[in-house]
Write a structure and sequence with these properties.
Layout lengths: L19 H15 L10
Length: about 45
């Protein structure tokens, strides 16, 4: 039987604030790094 890796679903709700884009980018980098996918950061 084939093993399927679980999908990676994350939700991040950010307020309408000038700092939100930076928080979103930092969160994305952290999630990618946690899953050994940091090399995808620049294109994500």
């Amino acid at each position: 039987m084939a093993t399927v890796s679980p999908s990676l679903d994350y939700t991040l709700r950010l307020p309408r604030d000038p700092r939100s884009p930076g928080v979103g980018r930092a969160t994305l980098r952290a999630v990618l790094a946690a899953h050994d996918l940091a090399e995808l950061g620049p294109v994500a």
